[in-house]
Write a structure and sequence with these properties.
Elements lengths: L2 H27 L2 H7 L4 H4 L18 H13 L5 H8 L3 H13 L9 H8 L3 H7 L17 H13 L5 H8 L3 H13 L1
Subcellular location: Periplasm
GO molecular function, one term: iron ion binding
Keywords: Electron transport, Heme, Iron, Metal-binding, Periplasm, Signal, Transport
């Protein structure tokens, strides 16, 4: 191995370790109990224990904490649109967001009830999703958990990425290549996990 490649490798490893330590420190600082108290304002839409009964609102139980914080910050800044969530996020501090994320991520997720034939069609196309969202669609770091999410909610988000009304550069490009049938099948499969 060339010296410059060796040093670049060490530098990259050091930066990754530093990033992991920073994230671990913020995760340790999160207070699940405080998040539970703060979550009372979330139950009207996201349901008790983070299990929304209305497909208009996402299930938050078991969601990745990094993703929750990222989305709350996006709603607060206005980079993600949603009038209800923008208003809800405005009053949240970074600590509030971290506590809420710790609470919701600690809750037991569930599996959505779906049409098994539609889910079977979606499974055949799911490899493009599972690369980022995890082999069981459990989510990874800032990539959200898709497993157990309302299929109608997932379909709505994929359509928003496809039309460009929701931004997320890789998702916009991926969704543009999906037909309406692909979207419905993928949403059914991912919700069934």
């Amino acid at each position: 191995m060339k010296k410059s490649n060796f040093y670049n490798s060490i530098m990259l490893s050091t930066l990754c370790l530093f990033g992991t330590l920073i994230f671990a420190a913020s995760a340790i600082a999160a207070d699940v109990k405080a998040g539970e108290k703060k979550a009372s304002a979330c139950t009207n839409c996201h349901g008790l224990n983070g299990i929304s009964v209305d497909a208009q609102f996402p299930v938050l139980a078991g969601q990745r904490p990094e993703y929750i914080v990222k989305q709350l910050k996006a709603f607060k800044s206005g980079s993600r649109q949603g009038p209800i969530m923008k208003n809800m996020a405005q009053g949240l501090s970074d600590e509030d967001m971290t506590d809420l994320a710790a609470y919701f991520s600690s809750l037991q997720p569930r599996t959505a009830v779906v049409d098994p034939k539609l889910a079977e069609l979606g499974e055949k196309q799911s490899a493009m999703c599972l690369g980022c969202h995890g082999k069981g669609a459990e989510g990874r770091m800032q990539f959200p958990r898709l497993a157990g999410q309302h299929p109608d909610y997932l379909a709505k988000q994929l359509k928003a990425f496809k039309s460009g009304t929701r931004k997320g550069s890789p998702m916009n490009a991926i969704a543009k290549n999906l037909s309406e049938e692909d979207i419905e099948a993928l949403a059914a499969y991912l919700g069934s996990l």
